[in-house]
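Inputs:
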Amino acid sequence: MNTLSAAVSIGFHGLAFAMVLYLISVGLSVTMGLMGFVNLAHGVFAMLGGYILTGLMSRAGVPFVPALAAAAVATGLGSIIVERLLYRRLYGGDELDQVLLTMGLIFMSVAAATYAWGPLPQSMHPPLWLRGEIDFVFRSFPGYRSFLILCGAALVTALWLGLERTRFGARIRAAVDNLRMAQSVGINTSRLFTWTFALGSGLAGLGGALGADLLAINPSYALDNLVYFLIVVAVGGLGSIRGPFVAALLLGVADTGFKYLLPELGAFFIYALTMAILLWRPRGLFGRA
Amino acid sequence: MATEGLVRPGVTAANGAIDAFARRHRYHPLEALPWLAAVASYFVFPDYLALGAQVLATILFALSADLVLGYAGIVTLGHAAFFGTGAYTTGILAAHGWGEPITGLLAGAAAAALLGCLSGLVVLRTTGLALLMQTLVVATMVAEAANKASFITGGDDGLQGMEVWPIFGRFRFDLFGHTAYFYCLTVLFLCWLTARHIVHSPFGRSLTGIRENVRRMHAIGSPVAHRRLVIYTISAALAGISGALIAQTTQFVSLSFLSLERSGTVLIMLIIGGVGQLYGAFIGVPLYMVAQNRFSEIDPVYWYFWIGLLMVGVVIFARGGVLGVFERFRR
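Outputs:
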C-alpha cells in the first residue's frame, strides 16, 4: 500500500510540474520550429509573468485570477515589442548571432529584475480557496497543485483544438511544414510570426506565474531553468505541440520520482535519459525528419 | 588581394587567389600585433597584471572554443566541462601535495582531453540542436558530479588549500602577478602556435570542409566522424590547460568553473571578437573582460545590464563581431 501511495504522490506532483514545464516550453518549441530561431531568452518571459503575478498580488492586492490573466496578457504584449524591435532582424540569420542576442537579453533581464524586485526570490501565496486539501475517492490532494493540473489540462486541450480546428492554427501548421509554400498561397507569415511569438510568450508568462511555487521566481530564473526548457523542446521535437507535452510529462514525472527515490543521484538519471533519447532520435520524439 | 589588376581582372584575380592560398600559412606581420600589445600592456598597466593574466588564460579558452565552433562547426554550450575539469585536476593535485606547475598543466590537459574524447564519442553522433543539447547535458552532469563529490572538490565552498610551487623551482608566483602574467603569456603563445599549425595543416583544411559541406566531405571519402572527434579532443585539452592556468594563478577553483554561464560567456566573447579566424579570441576576450571589469567598478550591482546591452548592440550594429566589421571595412 505504501508503494502505491508513493507512486500516486509522484505521479500527482510530477504531473503538476509537467504542466508548468509544458506551458512554458510549448511556445519555445513552436517558435523554434517556425522561425528556426534559437531563443535562449524564452525563460525571461516566464520570469516576467511570475513577477507580474507576485507583484500584483502582494503589492497591489489584486486577486489571484485577474493577476494571472494580467501576467499572461502583459507578457504576451511585451514580447511583441521585443520581437518587432530585435528578433525580427535575425530571422533566417546566423545561429551564433541569435545566441549572442538572446544571451544578452538574459543578462539584461537579470539586472533589470534585481533592480525592480530585488535579489531575493519572490514568494507566491495561493488564494485561500486553493490552499486546503481536496478529498478525492481514497486520499486527499493539495488544492493548488490540483488546480495547476486542471488548469494545465484545460489549456492543453484548448491549444490542441485551436491548432487543429481554427484558421490561425492551420496557418501555423502550414508555415511550419513549408514556409515558402505558405507565403506563396498568401499567408502573411510576418504577422503570423509576431502573433505566434506573442502567444508563445504569453503562455510562458502564464506558466511562470502558475508555477511560481515550483520554479522560484528570482532574477537568474531564465538562466537557472534554461536546461529544463531546452530539454523539453529538444526531446519533444521542434515545431510540434504534442512532442513537448510528452517530453514535459516524462521530465516532470521522472524528475519528481528520482528526486523522491534517489535524491543523491536523481539529476544524473534525467540527463542520462535525455542523452539516450537524443541519441536514439536526434530530432526528438515527435520531430520530423 | 593587393595584386588585383584592372587589365585582365579574371586572370590576375585567379593568380591572386592562388597566391593568397599558397601564402596563407606564412606569418603575416599583423599577427605580431596581439603579442606586442600583450608585452606592452605589462609595462603600461602594471597595476592590472592579475586581471591581465586572467585575460590571457581566457583567450586560450576562447581559442579552444574557436577550434570546434569556428573550424569544425560544432556548436557547443558545454565547453566549461573541459575548462573546469582541467582546473579541478590541477587544483586537486596542488591541494594534495603536487604543486609543480608544468606537470600540473599537463595533467589538467590530459584529464580534459580524456573527457573530451569519451564524451565526444557519444555527443558527436548528433548535429544541430541535439548536439547543442548533448554538450550542455554533459557539462551539467560534470558540474553535478563535482557538486556531489564535495569531499574532494570542496563542493559549494570551492577548492581550498592549493599550493603551487615556483615554476622550474625558481619563479615564485607573486602577489602582483608578474610571474603569472608571463607564465600565462608563454603558455598561450605555445598553444596558439599549435592551434595555428593545426588550422593550416591539411587536417585543419578538411575541418573547414566539414563545416562548409559535410556531404561532399563524406562523398570524397574524408573520415568525418574521426576528424571531428580528434579536433574535439584537442580543443578539450586546450580548454583544460586554460582552466588549469586560472586555477594555478588564482589558487582557487569553484563550481562556477563548470557552469553553463561559463560555457555561454566564452561563446559570447568569441562571437564578439569574430568566429573562425583564430584571432577573434584575442579581440573579444579583452574587450569583454575589460568592459566587465569597468562596468562592475562603475556599477557593482547592475553591471550585468550594461554587458547585456553591449551584446545586443554587437548583434544589431556589428554583425560578425569586431573582425567581421573590420573585414567589411576593408572591402
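Remarks. Confidence is low (pLDDT under 50) at residues 1-7 of chain B. The radius of gyration of chain B is 21 Å.
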